[in-house]
Amino acid sequence: MKKKLIQIYYDMRTQPVVAWVTILGTALSIFLIMTVLMMQQVKIIPFAPESNRDRMLYGMFFHLESNEEGAGSGSANLSYNMARRLYGDLDGVAEVSYFDKDPSHNDLKGPSGKKFTGAIRFADDAFWRIYDHTLLSGRFFTADEVAAKSRVAVLSESTARRLFNDASPLGGHFQQNHADYEVIGVVADVSPLASMAYGEVYVPVDRDVIWEMNGLQVFGPFTAAMLLEPGTDKEAVRGQVLARYREVDSELNAEGYRTVYHESPFSQEVIASGVAGSNMTPDVSGGRTLRYVLYAILLIVPAINLSTMLHSRLRRRVSELGVRRAFGCTRRRIITDIISENLIVTVIGGVIGLAAGIIFALCYDGLYTNSAGEAVRPALGLLLDWRILLSAFAACFILNIISASVPAWQASRLRPVEAINAK
Amino acid sequence: MCHEWRSNIWMTVELLVVGVVLCVVFSILLSIFALHKAPEGADFDNLYTGWIGYIEEDNDAYRPYDENHSYSTDLEIITAKLKSNPNVEIVGYGDNMLPYNYSYWGTTLTARIDTALQQYNGNLRTYDPEAIKAIRLTGLNGESTDELAAMIERGDYMISTQEVWRGDKPDIERWRGMDAAKSYDSTKIVHIGAIINGIRRMDYERCQGVIMRPLSGRPGQVVVRVRPGSTRDFLDSLDGDDLEHGNVYISGLKNLADIRTEAHRDVTVMLRNVSVCALFVMISIFLGFLGTFWFRTAQRVPELALRKVNGATNANIFRRCFSEGLLLLVIPTIALAAAVFFGSGYLMESGLASDISGFEFNKPMFWLAAAISVGAMAMMIVAGVAIPARRAMKIDPARALSEE
Amino acid sequence: MPIIELSGICKVYRTKEIETTALDNINMSVEKGEFVSVMGPSGCGKSTLLNITGLLDRPTAGTVRLLDRDCNGLSDTALSHFRNENIGFVFQSFHLIPSLSVEDNVELPLDYRNGLSGADRRRRVDEVLERLGLSHRKKHMPSQLSGGQCQRVAIARAIVGRPSIILADEPTGNLDSRMGAEVMDLLHDLNTTDGITIVMVTHNELQAKQTDRIVRFFDGRIIS
Predict the structure, then answer these.
(1) Which is more confidently placed, B183 or B257?
(2) Within a domain: residue A309?
(3) Is the Cβ pair C91, A323 closer than 8 Å?
(4) Helix or strand run (H / E) with residue C70
């Protein structure tokens, strides 16, 4: 290993332009790959308070079509009753929360006198059991308070400071769209990247809100968020939901409507991809294919460059390769040596690219957005997740294999005699 | 150059791949540019919008009305306060009045044109006359904003032209002056007063149907037109009480330009991503040619020295380097041209390009994109070869040959 | 039993336009412990013979037997292993790896030898450097050495694997007479003390006469 590092250093010194083109090309490729990957991963990787993302399913929409051809249809989020009908008490589901997945941005005013707009999360008591918010003081609201539509609220730490300055917020009162609320708890601030758990003010949801369509009371602002038992098969849950859709169908037929099933409930990947719509079956494969095509471009184009650079670097070492072969180095060993040496160079470029990607993500506004389309910056801890670091190394490895295989193979085919005497 | 055939093949392959990527990117950019520049039927600049909240009776903050006061009178007072602001031109009310949200809350109108029953599906938007004036709506047949506002005031509906539709395309221009049934209910008849120019829900979408109806009942949304130049100062010029009175308040007042930016964030992000992709592949070309020609120049010092000895000028050497680099672009250019010539027809007829990208294309766009791609690659090749070419120019032939 | 046996060796180089016969029906054997010189004018096939003997090139016809083993049918990997264990090379241009130090250059053949621990390898390298008087130079780079020192490093590299055969292609060609004499002394010492069989290509008549036998080449054939 030490000899390899020495040779690489010597190589870089004698051919600095080629070496720097190699490292910059690799760094740029890894920088972009990691930026694309991080943009996607931060929406999927579990982090508090959405620490159970891999076990979450979301029933968000309901879609109806009229049985009369060409007549109306409707699709929207669910009413509370329909959400419970479809997603309540399913086998393999540990907990279900019925809440409004889109925070409202309403006016807030507290004893501090400041009036500002805040993100209001309308949720129920189960919300606090499926997400792991850090409770700093006080308590969460209870099932009774939700049922009674109590005007109680849990604030995020920064919102509490804005409303109450340095005074203790517990027991204090503030106005949300001119309605008076009592503060019962304070939680640590949540990143807007946790799009389902995020809020600045959390209040009990009104289960009676219905969006009526043609006399039907199936639509409303509700999403059912389900935390599965460990080991539960998501397809099995979907199977149960589909059966319930069929039951609802038979009742709605009498009203002249039928349901359209769109493979609900959705996983975190579907939510993250942004393809979930009220009247379409989400197709994550399209987004996935596009990402893979992008990764392929970001790997293949620089790989061709790097291959040419490596070929150039090896041409200066032809004589050395001939000598190695003379002293017993096999062709396979030539290939593995070249690939492993090149991997070191690739990893150097990759580390630079990854560091640049992380710094860019931390500094540049607008790279990451939450589900409301607002720009957010991720925390450093989230970007240093082991999955991201492993992906960076995998990208380096793949780039190395693509770029080094052909030159290494060509170098191994050199006839020792010709190589030794080459100039 | 012939001895570098392996390296040349790889670079040609790279140029081919990059050429395809650039062609796709520039096609998308051209499509977005064309769509973005399409004219609209209203003026959405210098507008603010917000939501109207009503304190209901079950709210502790509710103040009971006497017989002379109601939500309407509270709203009129708020309107008067806003209009007294020197920055404000017009204040209007309605629901779902403005684009740049993802709402498609809509309905269907049906009308008998000649003997055929036509249907029109549209996004339902509700306006009072002042709101029509605020957005400066114009009609397809030259109706002025004031005329359209008068139509709304007398209870007429208006529908827009459309570029996408469901089912058979309705003969929209025949609908002017017709009576139509709402939601297939023949007891709910509305009169179509005018056809308006299409209004896109988003800047990068084709016009879908819009049904404009008069406001009745309590409005949920306010739209404020401010004087040009005062857009950034408007919110600061408001007092805390300007937006509320009695049991009515205006909440979340925002510049429509900001809402527009946020609404288009997906497209902006996509544009940014494809542009970065294009920039990346172009930089790759630059780095690749820089590194390769740097190495080649170093390897060919004796040859270049000999050329100079035999009369080649610096300009000859310089041009030789560039032409070697640009020569590699010949095959990718031919390949791109062939791909556009043979492939563009298929992509458009099958709808594959639109299905995958979500944008509309035409043949001139593809040709232009291909031409820009070749130009961009040529530029990067020239930039990448320039430094090694300069180095080659500076070779001292005597010294180089003696070292050899 | 000869340690090197070449029977009916032919080497023909073919291009689209011309066919060149570098070696024409060569029969040659070298006994164990012999020090043989190969002489002849430039282009007569001496180096080609050395390359075929060292299994760096395959003959167009004929057989190569080394250490009583027919090497013709061996795979490339088997040839590599055989070279590593039994043959050392010394080249006219030294062919030291410029990015490696003296000790790393000497250790090169052991990088491809299985069954040796790192400590054993270092011990062997130190022994060989000590023997050749290069211990004080082991951390130096080839660019810091004289021509004679470079060639001694090359010889050290050739013997560190304890080969039975050394093939030297004009080992003193790039050296002055004093350094050339030093190198020749080294080679003789390896031959007499360690019993290593040496086949050396040379243009130097004086040095050739110091060897056990001279094989003279002309136009691809042995003439004496």
Answers:
(1) B257
(2) yes
(3) yes
(4) strand C69-70
Question: What tens digit of pLDDT does each residue of A294-336 get?
Answer: 888 888 888 888 888 888 888 888 889 999 999 999 999 999 9
Taking alpha carbons only, the member of B289, B320, B284, B335 closest to residue B395 is B320
Does the pLDDT value for residue A351 go beyond 80? yes
Q: Give per-residue pLDDT as tens, B323-353.
A: 888 999 999 999 989 988 888 777 766 666 6
Q: Which residues contact A268 (CB under 8 A, 6 or more apart)?
A: A43, A44, A53, A54, A56
Looking at residue A101, the DSSP 8-state letter turns out to be: S
Tokens 């990691």 sit on residue: A34
Lowest mean pLDDT segment, chosen from B140-149, B281-290, B349-358: B349-358
- DSSP code per residue over B144-190: -HHHHHHHHHTT-EEEE--S--SSSPP-GGGGTT-EEEETTEEEEEE
Are B229 and B103 found together in one domain?
yes
How sure is the predictor about B108, in pLDDT bands with cuts at 50, 70 and 90? confident
Whether residues A24 and B287 touch (CB distance < 8 A) is answered with: yes
Q: Report the amino acid identity of residue B368.
A: L
Give the contacts of A46 (CB within 8 A, at least 6 positions apart): A52, A53, A54
Considering only alpha carbons, which residue of chain A is nearest residue C158? A327
A68 belongs to a structural domain? yes
- Residue that is last in its domain, among A156, A185, A204: A204
B270 vs A229: which has the higher pLDDT: A229
Prior bond of C171 cis (ω within 30°)? no
Q: Which of B256, B280, B303 is the last residue of a domain?
A: B256
CA C176 from centroid of its chain's CA atoms:
20
Residue with tokens 């004589």: A319
pLDDT at A200: 95
pLDDT at residue number B352: 64
User: Which residues constitute the domain of residue A70?
Assistant: 61-98+209-264
Mean pLDDT across chain A, nearest whole number? 88
Domain span at residue B204 reads 47-256
Q: What is the ipTM score, two decimals? A: 0.88
Please spell the DSSP secondary structure of B333-374, one letter per residue.
HHHHHHHHHHHHHHHHHHTHHHHHHS----HHHHHHHHHHHH
Residue C67 near residue C83, CB atoms below 8 Å: no
Closest-CA residue to A146 (of A121, A168, A171, A170):
A121
Per-residue pLDDT tens digits for A83-112: 999 999 999 999 999 999 888 888 899 988
Q: How far is A216 from chain B (nearest CA, A)?
A: 15
A315/A379 same-domain check:
yes
Q: In chain B, which residues touch A (CB < 8 A)?
A: 6-7, 10-11, 13-14, 17-18, 21, 53, 55, 59-61, 107-108, 119, 167, 183-184, 240, 244, 249, 251-252, 262-263, 265-266, 269, 273, 276-277, 280-281, 283-284, 287-288, 290-292, 294-295, 299
Amino acid at A93: V
Answer yes or no: is B42 within a domain.
no
| Neighbour-count burial of B239, counting CB atoms closer than 10 A to its CB (0-12 exposed, 13-18 middle, 19+ buried) | exposed
- Residue B76's contacts (CB-CB under 8 Å, 6 or more residues apart) are none
Q: CATH classification of C33-58+75-222 is 3.40.50.1820, yes or no?
A: no
Same domain, A80 and A227: yes
* Average pLDDT over all residues of chain B: 84
A329 interfaces chain C, CB cutoff of 8 Å: yes
Residue A196, in any domain of the structure: yes
Half-sphere exposure for B231 (CA within 13 Å, toward CB) = 14
Question: Do residues B70 and B212 both lie within one domain?
Answer: yes
Which of A327, A332, A333 lies at the smallest CB-CB distance from C109? A327
Q: Does residue B266 carry a pLDDT above 80?
A: no
Q: Which residues of A touch C153 (CB under 8 A)?
A: none
Nearest to A7 among C91, C95, C100 (CB): C100
